[in-house]
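Worked example 3 (structure in, sequence out).
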């Protein structure tokens, strides 16, 4: 059996499973509480793995391994940044948000932030616009990952690949809502963990072991490849390191991640979930960094650094095994956008009705599904006609939402309610400074882009706490 045939068969089987999940979970989706939070009955395994997968996926598999391949040792800073973000989320945010959302019956992050504030402050409107704008870029990056994978595996154009991946995601997200998203993301997360263990180990064995890797890396003919700061001047080096570490600050502000905390059934489930999630993060991020470094030794010239994952897979395994792994990871990448689609839909339907008369359950579900469909189409167009750099696009959306919502959420959970005025100012300032910092080449990816907006928004939010 050829590699292409194996991939096709595996893909078909996996897609049948996804479609079946969508159909079966549609029976458990009877109202908006089910559609957005699965009735608040998530157990530890599903919540931990699905939250981890929805916060990582294409960016981790392709972006982090590609960064390690291109940058060298300095990519190691991504490990404490991302694992630290997991720790911040699961030990500081999760227990408090789970309790607060249950007490207030909040379904979304925006509802937690904007609840009981006067309509004149338009917090829900501003939050919804920020979420929809940021997640549009985030979702399109997942479609890009699918397109790159299909085009690298089959004789199919990138544009067609994006459309195929998007169509599958649209179907099962529309059918099953939160339950479909959580279960498929759990499958995705397990596949990612398996790949992050198997593939780097195979690459390390091919190199000749860790000692050989250490001997070979200094021979890579790239300036600063063995430097933790890429041989930058001191001021630039500080900005580079802080910029990478600042990625961890974005975790609390991701609506598609923290909604899993709100869906947990109880504190006992949370305790088990955070252990699973931290272990997952350690395995996946260390594995992808190791893969990128081994890949540079094994495959010196790759035009697109974000394809090192697939180049290594195709060269290190037999056609059948490589086909199965490629197909599974392709499916995992494609299923990541579902969480972002669901959160964006909740922002543009549920959140914008915080101060309005509630519509019927049937109307709410219909509106949510229409928004999911329209956002998917917009993301497909952006993936086809926009830039093709997954790493940068994800970090842009990640940092923007992290600076807009993370400070407000943390201060709200630790210090109590924040005045509506301070909430709105902190949200707008964090988001705006993050976008401006990203848009300026000299500050893009530095602490000015990823840390300063977060810190300033936190100060404003804290000063606005109701004493």
């Amino acid at each position: 059996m050829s590699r292409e045939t194996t991939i096709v068969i595996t893909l078909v089987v996996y897609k049948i499973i996804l479609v079946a999940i969508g159909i079966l979970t549609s029976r458990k989706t009877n109202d908006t509480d089910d559609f957005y939070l699965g009735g608040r009955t998530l157990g530890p395994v599903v919540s931990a793995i699905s939250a981890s997968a929805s916060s990582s996926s294409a960016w981790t598999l392709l972006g982090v391994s590609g960064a390690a391949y291109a940058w060298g040792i300095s990519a190691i800073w991504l490990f404490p940044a991302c694992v630290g973000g997991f720790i911040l989320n699961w030990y500081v945010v999760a227990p408090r948000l789970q309790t607060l959302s249950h007490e207030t019956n909040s379904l979304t992050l925006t509802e937690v932030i904007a609840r009981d504030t006067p309509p004149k402050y338009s917090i829900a409107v501003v939050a919804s616009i920020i979420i929809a704008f940021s997640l549009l870029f985030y979702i399109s990056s997942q479609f890009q990952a699918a397109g790159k994978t299909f085009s690298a595996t089959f004789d199919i154009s990138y544009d067609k690949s994006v459309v195929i991946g998007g169509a599958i995601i649209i179907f099962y997200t529309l059918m099953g809502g939160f339950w479909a998203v959580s279960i498929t993301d759990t499958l995705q997360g397990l596949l990612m963990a398996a790949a992050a263990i198997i593939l780097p180990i195979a690459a390390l064995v091919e190199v000749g072991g860790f000692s050989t890797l250490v001997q070979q890396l200094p021979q890579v003919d790239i300036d600063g490849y063995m430097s933790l700061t890429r041989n930058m001047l001191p001021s630039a080096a500080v900005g580079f390191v802080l910029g990478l570490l600042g990625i961890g600050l974005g975790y609390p502000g991701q609506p598609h991640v923290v909604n899993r905390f709100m869906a947990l059934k109880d504190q006992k489930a949370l305790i088990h979930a955070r252990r699973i999630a931290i272990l997952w993060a350690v395995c996946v991020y260390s594995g992808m960094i190791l893969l990128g470094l081994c890949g540079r030794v094994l495959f010196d010239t790759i035009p697109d650094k974000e394809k090192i994952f697939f180049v290594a897979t195709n060269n290190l395994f037999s056609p059948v095994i490589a086909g199965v792994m490629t197909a599974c990871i392709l499916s995992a990448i494609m299923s990541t956008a579902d969480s972002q689609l669901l959160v964006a839909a909740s922002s543009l339907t549920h959140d914008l009705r915080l101060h309005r008369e509630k519509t019927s359950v049937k109307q709410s579900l219909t509106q949510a599904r229409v928004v999911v469909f329209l956002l998917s189409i917009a993301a497909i167009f952006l993936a086809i006609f926009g830039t093709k750099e997954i790493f940068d696009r994800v970090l842009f959306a990640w940092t923007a939402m992290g600076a807009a919502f993370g400070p407000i959420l943390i201060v709200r959970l630790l210090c109590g309610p924040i005045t509506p005025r301070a909430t709105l100012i902190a949200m707008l300032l964090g988001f705006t400074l993050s976008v401006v910092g990203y848009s300026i080449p000299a500050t893009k990816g530095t602490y000015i882009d990823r840390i300063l907006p977060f810190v300033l928004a936190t100060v404003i939010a804290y000063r606005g706490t109701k004493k």
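Notes: The CA atoms of residues 85 and 251 lie 5 Å apart. The chain has one domain: 3-249+267-355+367-390.
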